[in-house]
Write a structure and sequence with these properties.
alpha/beta; Rossmann fold; five-stranded parallel beta sheet; four-stranded mixed beta sheet; 8 helices
Length: 201
């Protein structure tokens, strides 16, 4: 019997480097599938349907919400964003690992619907480091920076709802920590029980 794939959910405050870690993880483990989100916003130049996003009308998205076709979704300003459930579950059944890089609210929705998921929270070494990273982008006003830091504090308070916390003081080391988590998860007996019974008994 084939072991199911892992649903890996990575979150963290803006500026913590979760995107960088996800990219490094995919470079090391190219077989990890990155889930494509759905949205009701219009495509930007160069974006392709089914590659960058699944672009849906508002009516279609709301119809799919009613049919519970999303692992998680949120409304951001005037647009919806969400993770289609069917594709993710299909890949997991085939034994493929699926990566979601989503915010805290979305991650906890996924946890509710799919308790077997592995929730990993990426932390900055200190809040001062987070402030420096955000400031270094040169795109945020002081008010924006304060808002992001306040949001980060709120998100960090919910870390107890995650399975793991990884401090990103060094991208290579943090990526290795995430890889170690995935190796450990794949060895858990509750994930391998049927396979073990089939092979040995």
């Amino acid at each position: 019997m084939k072991q199911k794939g892992l649903l890996i959910v990575i979150s963290g405050p803006s500026g913590a480097g979760k995107g960088t870690i996800c990219r490094a993880l995919i470079e090391k483990r190219p077989k990890i599938h990155v889930s494509v989100s759905a949205t009701t916003r219009n495509p930007r130049k160069g974006e392709e349907d089914g590659i960058n996003y699944y672009f849906l009308s508002k009516e279609t998205f709301e119809f799919r919400i009613q049919r519970e076709e999303f692992l998680e979704y949120a409304r951001v300003y005037d647009n919806y964003y969400g993770t289609p459930k069917k594709n993710v579950l299909k890949r997991l059944e085939k034994g493929e690992d699926v990566l979601l890089e989503i915010d805290t609210e979305g991650a906890l929705q996924v946890k509710e619907q799919f308790p077997e998921g592995v929730l990993i929270f990426i932390l900055p070494p200190k809040l001062e480091d987070l402030k420096s990273r955000i400031k270094g982008r040169g795109t945020e006003t002081e008010a924006d920076i304060k808002k992001r830091l306040d949001c980060a504090k709120e998100e960090i308070q919910r870390i107890h709802e995650y399975h793991y916390g990884v401090v990103n003081d060094d991208v290579d080391r943090a990526t290795r920590d995430v890889e170690a988590i995935l190796r450990s998860e794949k060895l858990k007996t509750n994930r391998n029980y049927q396979e073990i019974i089939h092979q040995y008994l």
